[in-house]
Specification:
2 domains; Serine Threonine Protein Phosphatase 5, Tetratricopeptide repeat; about 0% strand; rod-shaped; mainly alpha; disordered C terminus
Length: about 290
């Protein structure tokens, strides 16, 4: 018997021993037996791919996916048209979390063995995971952070055009409104402007609005306060205007409800203990509209 034949026979014997150990569940000893077969087999032995495939299977049982992947790669390189070798590659890739690699291996396996139902089922599962991650897999199976869309700020010219177009559209809609609707819009804008103004004024640190706060009612009816009393005043102004009241009467109503800046001072017009006392010359809190 030639040396080559003897080495081939020894390798085959070690391989059979490893297969028996594998069936018995002794995967660690099976790895040793398959390693012996790989070591003693001639370099051109056509069964080397089988020995690497078997050792890869034993490594997979031991959860050593990296070693299994190395053996599986050697196997498919030696016998690229052997479906069993690609099944080892796919299993190792799945254990490593490399779903993209597993997908390619399963596709190759199915192209060689179209009747392999298990391979088709595993391929569907891999593709579902890839679709869930939103990426075509990465070695290690880490989640791929989606790219953040970039937003560019518009130029001042573009912003100016947009604002002008918005104002033009708003004016067009305003002109189409009925007189009642236009008055309602004016009231709403007045309230908004007043609220913005008062908050900016206080933010700038000017403090209280009047040196004579003691002359104001302390029950929430004071001038400039946006309260139920102010809302009633706006409604009263609206109906007075619709009834044809003069501007002087409208101003008087606004003053009475504290919408002009005078507020309801104690002593103004007979209110409180300072009956008949003249107004404080504009030192009252700012009104809602005037």
């Amino acid at each position: 018997m030639s040396e080559r034949a003897a080495r081939h026979a020894a390798a085959k014997t070690a391989k059979e021993r490893g297969s028996a150990l594998y069936r018995d569940g002794d995967y660690q000893e099976a790895v040793k037996a398959f390693s012996e077969a790989i070591k003693v087999a001639p370099k051109d032995d056509e069964d080397l791919a089988v020995y690497h495939s078997n050792r890869a299977a034993a490594y997979l049982r031991l959860n050593d996916a990296r070693s299994a992947k190395k053996d599986a790669d050697v196997c498919v390189k030696a016998r690229p048209l052997w479906a069993r070798g690609w099944s080892r590659v796919a299993a190792a890739c799945e254990m490593l979390g490399d779903d993209a690699g597993a997908e390619k291996a399963y596709e190759k396996l199915i192209s060689l063995d179209g009747d392999n139902v298990d391979a088709r089922r595993s391929l569907r599962a891999v593709r579902e995971r890839l679709a869930t991650r939103g990426a075509r897999g990465r070695p290690g199976g880490g989640f791929k952070i989606p790219s953040i869309p970039r937003f560019s700020m518009p130029s001042l010219a573009d912003a100016g055009v947009a604002v002008a177009a918005g104002i033009s559209m708003a004016k067009m809609r305003y002109d189409r409104m009925s007189p009642n609707q236009q008055l309602a819009v004016k009231c709403i804008l007045g309230v908004v402007i007043y609220m913005v103004f008062t908050r900016v004024y206080r933010f700038l640190g000017f403090g209280r609005y009047s040196y004579y706060d003691d002359y104001y009612d302390d029950v929430g009816f004071g001038g400039g306060g946006f309260s139920l009393y102010s809302i009633i005043g706006v409604v009263a102004l609206y109906y007075a205007h619709k009834s044809g009241a003069s501007w002087w009467n409208l101003l008087s109503i606004a003053q009475m409800f504290g919408l002009t800046g005078g507020g309801r001072r104690r002593g103004y017009g007979g209110y409180g203990r300072y009956g008949g006392m003249p107004g404080m010359g504009g030192f009252g809190r700012p009104g809602m509209f005037f």
